[in-house]
Amino acid sequence: MDKLKEMIAEQMEKFPGRAGFELYCLETQEKIGFNRDERFHAASIIKVPLLYEGLCQIREGRLALETEYELPEEEIVGGAGVLQLLHPGLNPSLQDLLYLMICVSDNTATNMVIDILGKDAVNGKLEEIGCRDTLLARKLMKVVPGVYSYTSAKDTVSILGKIYSEFYEEGMPFLRKQQFNDCLSRDIRFCKKCKELIGSSSRCPGCNEEINKLEIEEPGFAHKTGEVTGVVHDAGIWELPGKTLFVTLLTDKLPDNRIGKEFQAQLGKIIIKNFK
User: Fold this and answer.
1) Confidence class for position 114, pLDDT limits 50, 70, 90
2) Distance CA 115, CA 98 (A)
3) What average pLDDT score do residues 73-95 get?
4) Quick one: which H or E segment has residue 22?
5) How far apart, in whole angstroms, are the C-alpha atoms of residue 103 and residue 260?
6) Which one, of 213, 224, 74, lies nearest residue 163 by Cα?
7) H helices, E strands: number in the chain
């Protein structure tokens, strides 16, 4: 992966913000990392360790996916999600809350999950598995100046690896149904006819056919994005033929979040071109 590392390093040097990156190939056990241990504002990436701890407590018999929890009015918060638009007194199940937390990054659902799991339990699990650069500091959208959750690219890849290896059947469906796909995986579309990477083009650069006349292949990316002002993250698992890639790209100090998303999409294309 030396050539891939050089290509990513070139993009990193030109990037106007700060970036932390980690890529791990399961089959070859090769890694590429840049600023992998540096701590970043976690934004919604903190929902990945929440999912892992939830799966652990379910397996231990302490929780059940079908258990319902009342939505308290005082826990409704803004930002991403749909629960804020629904009536208080709703009774979503734990499974509903986990899907909402991951797939549409619902902050109200996330805060309910934090109450169900316990903040200390989440941080205790992070300590137990050696993720010392990740911390759940507080609930979402409940701002305490100077207090925020943080994570690193290395830790996030490690947690994704644990979900994949320990909870493949139970955990991967949550990540596979991600609704926000405007970062690493944004332009990862292939023409089934000629196998060329199409990206965001309206015509295939290989066979010059219009996109609406082609069958499109999109490699499965089970992932979670995260975003606040000046911060854009993506972290997930690409399941390619013969290769399983765990990748995290954290970015901050952005003058404009659109720059972060363009950077994410560019690195996503570089990675997939290398392995496809």
Assistant:
1) very high
2) 13
3) 87
4) strand 18-25
5) 21
6) 224
7) 8, 9
Cβ neighbors of 155 (< 8 A, separation 6 or more) are 126, 131, 132, 133, 134
Residue 68 located in a structural domain? yes
pTM over 0.90: yes
Contact 50, 32 (CB under 8 A): no
Indicate whether 32 belongs to any domain.
yes
Domain span at residue 151 reads 2-185+220-268
**Which tokens belong to 96?**
């509903």
* Length, in residues, of the chain: 276
Tokens 């990740």 -> residue: 134
- Sort residue 6 into left (φ over 0), alpha (ψ -120 to 50) or beta: alpha
192 to each of 22, 195, 205, how far by Cα in Å?
29, 5, 13
Helix (H, G, I), strand (E, B), or coil: what is residue 24?
Answer: strand
Domain contains 203: no
Per-residue pLDDT at 91 exceeds 90: yes
CA distance 239 to 193: 21
Q: State how many domains the chain has.
A: 1
For residue 81, what is the domain's CATH number? 3.40.710.10
Q: Does some domain include residue 114?
A: yes
* Best CA proximity match to 87, nearest among 71, 63, 106: 71
- State the Cα–Cα distance between residues 221 and 54, nearest whole angstrom: 21
Banded pLDDT at 127 (limits 50, 70, 90): very high
Torsion of CA 141, 144, 145, 147, to 10 degrees: -90
Contact 70, 89 (CB under 8 A): yes
Q: Would you say 159 and 171 are in contact if contact means Cβ atoms under 8 Å apart?
A: no
